[in-house]
# Entry
Amino acid sequence: METREDLLVVDRLKTQFFTYGGVVEALDEVSFEIRLGEIFGLVGESGCGKSVTATSILGLVAKPGKIVSGRVLLDGENLVEKSEQEMNRVRGSRIAMIFQDPTSSLNPLFRIGYQVAEPYIYHQRRPKRQALKDATEILAKTGLPDAVEKSRNYPHELSGGMRQRAMIAMSLTCEPDLLIADEPTTNLDVTIGRQILDLVKDLQREFGASVLWITHDMAVVAQMCDRVGVMYAGTIVEKTDVRTLFRNAKHPYTERLLRAIPSAVKSADKLEEIPGSVPQLIHPPTGCRFHPRCDHVMEICSRVKPVELEVEPGHMVACHLFGGEKEAT
Ligand SMILES: Nc1ncnc2c1ncn2[C@@H]1O[C@H](COP(=O)(O)OP(=O)(O)O)[C@@H](O)[C@H]1O
Ligand code: SF4
Ligand SMILES: [Mg+2]
# Structure
């Protein structure tokens, strides 16, 4: 469903990897919308297709992968149809990305300040001195201590948390409409990770960008996001606003993810593990891809793929427990 306030619409996106071992069906008709100024969370266990969703939006699907069908609409323009050159422009100006590993986007040979200033110099044609000054300012905004001094350092001279802040500063200099954050706190210790979450939230408010926040952690969803899509084995199984998800989760997989959140009253050893593991997607399970691990599995589940159904306003669930499925006759 597209509404006027949607910035990004991902529509039945199908991305596959054509490997020697077979076709990896990584995304199977993934659909969601990100509204203007919201933080949309994409949550699921490792291997569910979260990163492939991000690279598909950015036009950076690794070989031997490609988008085989579906659309990615940014303000109504289909990014899937754009040329590499056009996508380069989109990535430099409208969509920015922060990754789990900041070293992948920082060049070890250049000083931090210069790298942050680059978009100002080359895209916005600011004089170099001014650009460097502006870069230091934005570095300071990310909470980098002694930003003036640190901007003269090379990436290896900074800690992991500082490098992550530098990458966030880089992503903000192009003033993106959409920021994609793919588990950027995974490699950081808990305290620094929490600071980075707060930082992105503050900056998102200040700059008014929309954010796609990718995580395997429901607690992070609770802290960060406005709305959320729960992903399992290349499909979105549930989609709603975060309050509704925590109050009234419907999909058996979402329920399991929620039960796996550590809380003050549960000790770590009582934390529930989700039995089984995310399947390989070369021969994904038929019908509902969750059926081999589901406590509520029914006869229809292995045969028919459940369609998305609106169980309450704005709350979509794809599961046969909630009906809506017509069997093919
Ligand atoms: N380059 C690739 N070649 C083959 N399969 C891939 C490649 N990249 C990802 N996949 C497969 O796509 C699926 C989704 O992966 P990914 O998006 O990285 O998961 P997540 O980010 O949720 O952990 C997995 O089954 C993974 O093995
Ligand atoms: S469709 Fe069936 S297998 Fe899939 S989550 Fe629902 S009940 Fe479980
Ligand atoms: Mg990933």
Observations:
- The chain has two domains: 6-94+176-322, 103-175.
